[in-house]
Known about the structure:
This protein starts with a strand and ends in a 28-residue tail after the last helix. Helices cover 53% and strands 4% of the residues. By secondary structure, the protein is mainly alpha-helical. The protein contains 6 helices and 3 strands; from the N terminus they run βααββαααα. The chain folds into 3 domains: 2-73, Multidrug-efflux Transporter Regulator, Chain: A, Domain 2 (Orthogonal Bundle); 78-110; 113-159, no CATH class.
Amino acid sequence: xxxxxxxxxxYEIKTDTLRFYDKHKLLTPSSRTESGYRIxxxxxxxxxxxxxxxxxxxxxxxxxxxxxxxxxDKSNWACAxxxxxxxxxxxxxxxxxEELNYFKSSLQSLSDACCGGPESAEHCSIxxxxxxxxxxxxxxxxQHQHKKTHFTKNCKTKV
Length: 159
């Protein structure tokens, strides 16, 4: 049997996290003392470990609640149901990776288009690209020694 502070310490989480899980019906303590303190059993600790592991690999609390409901009633669910939850999360992650790769590429293009020099930002290629309707980033600073569409880290050398 664990009090809230003991269980929190065992899993290196805050007591507020346990209270949050209780409020959202993810982990309800097995009992309470006469003075209202939450008491957790070893089964509760195992459920908390399940929640922590699922959260660590990217499942949302909604996903975790669904997985826990399956866990509690395994005989009425198919393995395909669990796989469906995982595959849905995997699809979300792959979509997010594509989005992040697009952001990375766009930011790299903006960074490469700017020399980052000490001159005024009046002709800053990053600001100009963000202000324009064009999808092409060009450098319009006549002091830079390269083609308008080719850039180097410091915009001083032709590519």
